[in-house]
Amino acid sequence: EDTGTHVADATLDRYVERPLWDDATALAALNGNRGHVAALRALFLDELPGMRARIVDADMRRDTLHRLRASCGFVGAARLADAVQALQAGFSEPALQRVLDALRETLDQPPSR
Question: What average pLDDT score do residues 87-112 get?
Answer without folding.
Answer: 95
